[in-house]
Amino acid sequence: MKAQSSFSLLSFLALVLLQWSHSYINICNSLSIKEATIQDFQTAFDQNQLTSRQLVEFYLNEIEKLNPRLKGVIEVNPDALYLADKADREKKAKLPCSLSRLHGIPILLKDNIATKDKLNTTAGSFALLGSVAPRDAGVAMKLRKAGAIILGKASLSEWSMFRSSRAPNGWSARGGKGKNPYVLSADPCGSSSGPAISVASNMVAVSLGTETDGSILCPSAFNSVVGIKPTVGLTSRAGVIPISPRQDTIGPICRTVTDAVHVLDAIVGFDYNDARATRIASRYIPQGGYTQFLKANGLKGKRLGIVRDPFFMFSNKIVKQTFKRHFQTLRQNGAILVDNLEIANINVILDGTLSGEVTAMLAEFKISLNAYLKELVASPVRSLAEAIAFNKKNSDVEMIEEYGQEMFLASEATNGIGGAEKKAMRRLTNLTRNGFEKVMIDSKLDALVSVGADMSSVLAIGGFPGITVPAGYDSKGLPIGICFGGLRGFEPKLIEIAYGFEHATKIRKPPTFLP
């Protein structure tokens, strides 16, 4: 009798588990969590078809299944399920906070965006493992206020690609080598490779990346997702491991323009800890936010500049045909293409050494990184010099012999903002004024168009915004992106253009995981 009772209990538990499993699978399948949007999730929450806990469990399962191969996630939040349960309780109680679009939505942060929780913030380096931030980064605070769930940290190119130019895109000592989910042997680009890989492969729907020059736009284009690089200062850089205060910015990486705009709305605005930049840029934020610019006819009447040389000089026939077709689509949807424009000194702008961008950033990096490290509550290293020493001592795990740290060493050799740096910054200002700004103003453009992140340096040196949107795939299955860039504060126009293009083409498809 006792054995029979035990068997019955086990049978009952197995049945319950089986029913829960079938129910969970049915929920996931019926809602198609893969490729689902923020609005899909919120609708499912409201109709009691899905809970935040189930959504987090789904993503944790996908991370466990895919991440050993893709290396898009560097660390998972041990409190993610607790936070999901909290969100579910708030939703059930219909608390005011649960009305936010991001409430209960899991999000991955690039591993240079600090969080004051159980997660590490290391820029992919063992030199910062165990460091303790004094507070959440400004953007992380805003996400928590909006009810988002910090699911974990996404991988990146170590130190945002500023330790060594020899290290491959997507590689870090802690995270390993990130893989492009469309073609695993292909470049995922950097430095926000992890956020883009994770979103593209459905290990999460929403992520945050950072950009100094191309680090949101490039991985977004290479992994067939949407990336918004905001005007510098529109989003707070406080609590983000820095490179250059002139150029650093934080923005969303998602699968749709709509999702990226919802995230942008949540993270923009003034932050006391990045007061000067955010106060100036806050004047660009439109009353009512950015969602109002998600217009299907957003291309109508927009003047789009085309700089053929060097941005559209293709040898690849498929890419050439793809953009010829897209130019037709843009015109058919009401855009006015202003073709064959030229940006003065474009070859100089695209060469960071000639333009002065590298000279300025090397000095800025040392100053800003030392300030960040000094503010940490605890850290294995407290200065760039100590990080260099750590790398030398741990050269095996940090791969110093193979990839080096020549950019660290060059930065450490600088001595503040001196004559050479000031000259470089004046040169960057003049290149911007006489180049991109002049073309935009003289031709009365709403945006300049390029492939992927080809114009990232043009936008970077002036602190300008850009949005990249999936635009197709080449003969090998590799994603192609289209980028729209504008002057400071042009986010509303860029959103209208990007959404209009996305709506007209609907070109994105899930990853193929080809070898």
UniProtKB/TrEMBL annotation:
Coiled-coil spans in chain: none
Family annotation (InterPro entries): Amidase_dom, AS_sf
Keyword Ribonucleoprotein tagged: no
Swiss-Prot/TrEMBL keywords: Signal
SUPFAM superfamilies, A to Z: Amidase signature (AS) enzymes
Range of residues in the leader sequence: 1-23
Domain Amidase: 55-449
Protein name: Amidase domain-containing protein
Organism, scientific name: Buddleja alternifolia
